[in-house]
UniProtKB/TrEMBL annotation:
Keywords: Lyase, Pyridoxal phosphate. This is threonine ammonia-lyase. Residues 354-427 form the ACT domain. Residues 1-29 are annotated as: Disordered.
Length: 427
């Protein structure tokens, strides 16, 4: 079956014309046997991560929803599975030459740990602006880290140049059969832990994880529906699936750096086109809300890319046949990004309100304003004043407020109380 963009039952989406069947020569770049062999290879290396039920998402979706917690995997993401299988498959000569990779985070740590476990020297190129905790973790897992370039594309070129100069083997993050076979072990675990599953929802960047899960699951349970999720600002798969070949998109932009990939991998693309039932996109607001829900309700730290399946469930909860398994692919989120995303998520959920208003600049004016806010139980997080601005009158001051609220209805109540008290609330 060919992957579709959207679903005819979901408003605003449209079905995708079928992709021509794969030729026999290209039909099986990765097989179920490959994934099973990878599972044996990963025994004692990768954790069989837990699967947690989500009462909140189950109530929202009207069907059981389970979370496959790859954020609790070694190195904090699924990436170590594929990296280990890929490096373990190298010849002795290739291992002696070492390996090289390029990544801003998860793949870097996966390669570093896998190479260390196998006694292989690893060099990892990371962007100069990569979060310091991710750089430190990659070094601690045993890799030599080289910072190069401002964006991942520049870092990738540097890693490939290094491979050509030194003979080191370049370990691609998703575009290799061994990588896909390793990631496919997640699918085998899902079927073991939730044999009644009807839908699996998984984030897609380059496509290695979704392709691997699809190979394993469709071979054993062709009735299970597999839904891929991309960030709307970095969605290369919808145009690629329409075209029937990988298409590059310019300047992908999303907070979900784990799935911010401008072009699908050649190997996973054909698998996803043939085996994944549908690809959906989610907004930045939906990603933020999903990350906040995982933290508050599931007590799980998940990065934006890892929260993308939850974002898809929040966006259209009634459109998934259950039981549903959402794959939380990673939990490596920079604390500074987490702070921004949580605030963004609270705003998207109507629980964080920013507003400006004018008041008379006289003693007691601020205290009177705070009394109004206290009466409606609005929690003031931050407040600032502007008194010298050409827009303001001689006796006026402008106040900017950041408030924590209890939801959209409470936001409306706060605004109404301020206007009733005579304050001019600015847009």
């Amino acid at each position: 079956m060919a992957a579709r963009v959207g679903d005819e039952d979901v408003p605003g989406t449209s079905p995708l014309p079928p992709i021509p069947p794969l030729s026999p020569a290209a039909s099986a770049p990765v097989t179920l046997d490959d994934v099973r062999e990878a599972q044996k290879m990963l025994s004692g290396v990768a954790r069989t991560t837990v699967m947690e039920s989500s009462r909140t998402l189950s109530a929202l979706a009207g069907t059981p929803v389970h979370l496959k917690c790859e954020n609790l995997q070694r190195t904090g993401s699924f990436k170590v599975r594929g990296a280990y299988v890929r490096i373990a498959g190298l010849t002795e000569a290739e291992r002696a030459a070492g390996v090289v990779a390029a990544s801003a985070g998860n793949h870097a740590q996966g390669v570093a740990l896998a190479a260390s476990l196998l006694g292989v020297r690893s060099t990892v190129f990371m962007p100069e602006g990569a979060p310091l905790p991710k750089v430190a973790a990659t070094r601690e897992y045993g890799a030599e880290v080289r910072l190069h370039g401002e964006v991942v594309d520049e870092t990738l070129r540097a890693a490939k140049d290094w491979a050509e100069r030194t003979g080191a083997v370049f370990i691609h993050p998703f575009d290799h059969p061994d990588i896909i076979a390793g990631q496919g072990t997640v699918g085998l675990e899902i079927l073991e832990q939730c044999p009644e599953v009807r839908t699996i929802v998984v984030g897609i960047g380059g496509g290695g994880l979704a392709a691997g899960i699809a190979v394993a699951v469709k071979a054993l349970r062709p009735d299970v529906r597999i839904v891929g999720v991309q960030a709307a600002g970095a969605a290369a798969y919808p145009p690629s699936l329409r075209a029937g070949h990988p298409v590059s998109i310019p300047a992908p932009a999303t907070m979900a750096d784990g799935i911010k990939v401008g072009r699908p991998g050649d190997v996973p693309f054909r698998i996803i086109g043939d085996l994944v039932d549908e690809v959906r996109t989610v907004s930045e607001d939906e990603l933020s809300s999903a990350l906040l829900l995982c933290l508050e309700r599931a007590k799980l730290v998940v990065e934006p890319a890892g929260a993308s399946p939850v974002a898809a469930l929040l966006a259209a909860p009634g459109s998934f046949e259950g039981p549903v398994v959402a794959v939380l692919s990673g939990g490596n989120v920079d604390p500074l990004l987490m702070q921004r995303v949580l605030r963004h998520g609270m705003a998207a959920a109507g629980r964080y309100l920013s507003l400006r208003l004018r008041l008379t600049d006289r003693p007691g004016a601020l205290a009177a304003l705070l009394e109004v806010l206290s009466a409606v139980d609005a929690n003031v997080l931050d407040i600032s004043h502007v008194r010298t601005d050409p827009r303001l009158g001689l006796t006026e001051a402008e106040v900017e407020l950041h408030l924590e609220t209890m939801g959209p209805e409470h936001c409306a109540e706060v605004g109404a109380a301020l206007r009733e008290a005579g304050y001019l609330v600015m847009p």
